[in-house]
Amino acid sequence: MASFDLLGRRWTLRIVCELSKESLGFNELRRRASNMSKSVLSLRLQELVDAKVIHRDNESSSYELTPLGRSLYVALEPLFKWSNEWAAALGVNPDDSHDTELA
Fold this sequence. Notes:
The protein is mainly alpha-helical.
């Protein structure tokens, strides 16, 4: 149940999804989720670091998925696929749906 609590927090899945593609810094993560406040992003990043899902590289000041985070993303891929199908059924562009958290 703890994993559902962590993953159910607003923006958490978006962060995991964005970091599955590449390592990103704070400002770039915030840019990719334009509605996220700095304080919420900071909190979510710290929660994910504490949970060992992501790691902060102090040299580059970027965040990346840990091996545990990568395995989480693999486990979530069917959910992301379903989410894209759902967005299409609703007539929403899956790329746009990230900001409304449909995908």
